[in-house]
Amino acid sequence: MRIASFNINGIKARLPRLKEWLEETRPTVACLQEIKTMDEGFPAEEFESMGYQAIWHGQKSFNGVAILADGEKPVEIQRGLGIDGPKDGEGEQARYLEAEVRGLRICNLYLPNGNPQPGPKFEYKLAWMEKLRTRLRAIWEEQVPAVVLGDFNVIPEDKDVWSVRAMASDALMQPESRDAYARLLADGWTDAIDTLNPRGGVWTYWDYQAGAWQRDHGFRIDHLLLSPELADRMNAAGVDREYRGREKASDHAPVWVDLRD
């Protein structure tokens, strides 16, 4: 079975590209980030016509996550991590959705960017990562096979970016961000893409500006973390890089992991 993640950067604007990807690759589970629509605007019927059922956690114009499953409806376990946004009175942003599909726990996330740093947005990013770690520890204690995937907005190591110098001041690469990500791995989670590409050089994001795609100026911020049982079942993991080069594409490429039944 294939578990995949795709920061779609606006589900309405990218719907043709998203459906194209689903039709051509047919993941068992597809987790989406930055759907950028309120709950009532989510195009569930478009996916139902393709055999996918969905749950989603929307927000007007920003953020938003969804989980699609082939042939069955994901069973929602939790939405949100119980942490308010960086602005006073803002409430919780739509960044986390957890469900069960075919006996697997699927944790779909869109982690805060954190820029500009230093400042409240960066502090929110770090607090959010600590909340995530707490939740993942609880899942670990349940001893269920789990995948934690999505846009982490963290470049884990220097090998995961086209230019360390160009990104040195970005929140995605700060020592605090990297340390928080490393702590997740130290808790026992396996970074699927990194495990199979230990030398790095694998990108999942290319900015729309400055010809980043054409010049291959990218970095890796979309990750798939596996619990030990699923790490033992990993057959392959990769990036559907070609979809970044299509017309009106997202600035992210889909990432995926194949698991033995």
Give the helix level as a range of percent: 10-25%
Give the strand line-up of the largest sheet.
Answer: 3-4-2-1-14-13
CATH topology-level fold name: Deoxyribonuclease I, Chain A
Overall tally of structural domains: 1
CATH architecture classification name? 4-Layer Sandwich
Radius of gyration from the alpha-carbon trace, in angstroms:
17 Å
Helix/strand-derived class? alpha+beta
Largest sheet, described in full? 6 strands, mixed
Structure description:
One of its GO terms (molecular function) is metal ion binding. It is an enzyme of class 3 (hydrolase). 23% of the residues lie in helices and 26% in strands. The mean pLDDT is 97. The protein starts with a strand and ends with a strand. It is of the alpha+beta class. Helix 1 links the parallel strand 1 (2-7) and strand 2 (29-33). The strands form three sheets. It has a six-stranded mixed sheet. Helix 3 (120-142) packs parallel to helix 4 (175-186). The protein has a single domain (2-259), classed as Deoxyribonuclease I, Chain A, CATH 3.60.10.
Describe the structure in brief.
With 261 residues, this protein is α+β, with helices and mostly antiparallel strands.
Topology at a glance:
Elements: E1 2-7, H1 15-25, E2 29-33, H2 44-48, E3 52-57, E4 65-70, E5 75-79, E6 96-101, E7 104-110, H3 120-142, E8 146-151, H4 175-186, E9 190-191, H5 192-196, E10 205-206, E11 218-219, E12 222-226, H6 228-232, E13 234-239, E14 255-259
Parallel strand pairs: 1-2, 7-8
Antiparallel strand pairs: 1-14, 2-4, 3-4, 5-6, 6-7, 8-12, 9-12, 10-11, 13-14
Helix pairs in contact: 3-4
